[in-house]
Amino acid sequence: MDSDVASTARVTAALRAGETARANALFQDPWAAALAGPDLLATFAAQPPATQDRASRYTIIRTRVFDDWLLSTGSPQVVLLGAGFDTRAFRLGWPTGFQVWELDHAKVLDAKEAAMTGVPTRSGCTRRAVAADLADEEWPTALMTAEFRPEVPTAWLAEGVLPYLQPHTVETLVRLVSGLSASGSRFAADFVSTGFMAARNAYLATVNQPINSARGAVFCFGTNDPAALLTHHGWGVTSVKHPGDHDADFGRWVGPQNMAAGFFFVMAVRPLPASSYEPSSDASG
């Protein structure tokens, strides 16, 4: 695939496939190997175990953090923004009646469909793939056309997405999501600090190793205060975590604390009307 975004999606799938093969896996993703493709899987398998761990630990922890969060929200509508090669519609235990929308570029969704051809799947929810460019302010129209209902509480997840967008696009995206979110809706995303963004982009300029990152998929957005962005748009931030924190470790994070501080897992809720607001039982995340 010639798309940097699609290439990054393949790398992420390869990391999930590697995790699935572990005896102490934090999750199971039987479809990740098909999505990654044999060449990338072979590249990953050829790396020394220590290199594999370094390449995957953040992504694996992030996947589990957001798996747990999604199932805790109870929101009957779930929208995966920039879904890439996500397989949560297939592998999570969704309650009856839940609906999941996957938004991404048409070429990414087409590549995902091609990779899954002939691979048995069974979705535990109603799944809809929606071709949309998150940098285009018309993506809400495509979502609404796919039977999304803004009056229903929704769980929005932007995993591995926001750092690749321009700052003004991130601001617009959060504004549009906010306008589509009924009271009680949830939002979660991962962010990187400005310092980590600069360090990573400098590193990418010196290497071309697909298991570390897709060449050219540089970060464009970093912030040292991601909660402020969501608060500005009317969200109540319930949790900000770093890898290695409680419920964001799982015995896997062995990176230095200064590196952990460069990553944020942020969860928020669209406040209910004051007259009916009750603290959520999952307020920690």
Secondary-structure topology with pairs:
Blueprint: H1 4-20, H2 32-36, H3 38-45, H4 49-73, E1 77-81, H5 88-91, E2 99-104, H6 106-115, E3 126-131, H7 139-145, E4 154-158, H8 167-179, E5 186-192, H9 194-204, H10 226-232, E6 236-241, H11 257-260, E7 263-269
Report on the structure:
The protein has 285 residues and is an alpha/beta fold. It has a single domain (57-269), classed as Vaccinia Virus protein VP39 (Rossmann fold, 3-Layer(aba) Sandwich). 39% of the residues lie in helices and 15% in strands. It is built from 11 helices and 7 strands. The chain has a 7-stranded mixed β-sheet with strand order 3-2-1-4-5-7-6, with helices on both faces. Helix 6 links the parallel strand 2 and strand 3 (126-131). Helix 1 (4-20) crosses helix 3 and helix 1 crosses helix 4 (49-73). Mean pLDDT is 89; it is low at 210-216 and 275-285.
Quick recap:
The chain has 285 residues and is of the alpha/beta class. It has helices at 4-20, 32-36, 38-45, 49-73, 88-91, 106-115, 139-145, 167-179, 194-204, 226-232, 257-260, and strands at 77-81, 99-104, 126-131, 154-158, 186-192, 236-241, 263-269.
